[in-house]
Amino acid sequence: MIEQIEARGILKGFNDRFRLECSLSLEAGCVHVLIGPNGSGKSTLMRILSLIERPDSGTLIYRGKRQYVDPFSEIELRRRVVLVNTRPVVFRESVLENVLYGLKIRKVSRREALRRAEHALKRVGLYEMRNESATGLSSGEKQRLSLARAIAVEPDVLMLDEPTVNLDPENTGVIEQVILSLKDPERIILFVTHNLFQARKLADQVIFISNGTILEQSSKDRFFVSPETEEARRFIRGELY
Predict the structure, then answer these.
(1) Average pLDDT for the chain
(2) Quick check: pTM over 0.85?
(3) N or C: lower Cβ tally within 10 Å for the chain?
(4) What is the spatial distance between Cα 81 and Cα 2, in angstroms, rounded to a whole number?
């Protein structure tokens, strides 16, 4: 179990005009929602926290029974961290085989893998389509498949980068309900969205980032009722995109 992720002085530069420079802490047992204007560094921060991309400098610490100060080099730990991207990737196989993929990598027995995969597909409402080709799914169904693949590996850390963007209300609703059902005292969840209504619905904690810097991290109620910064107030009013 991973109880906490702490990022200290994370720095990632891209050009002379933008760099990500921030610190934050994520705790197990609640849904953290990361919001902010376009180009503020949300996806970059998500890729660093999910151990896909290294920062230029700074320290990332994963705490559980062990403390991992350089988690990027810990393969077993990285297999307990899952990122669901905005644009899902599916393989030219059945829906079920797509969900089994991550379990095969983790060397889960076939019997246990089938149990987990079928359970995950039921949770996202795709069980009846398990034998169909994944490439024939709609965009919303593919995103639900991507979420099922994440659920099946039973991650300690689940990160979702705008998984409902451009989806219809039905698929959006399914994904939102599944995310809420995944909230667990032993799991860290971080969710990126531009949708403030969605943030209010899903968040326990809100992290507001602007121009590569985290300006606020507070409870949902505190953030939406009395934000501390003018940038956050403007974002809530719809003046920053």
Answers:
(1) 94
(2) yes
(3) C
(4) 9
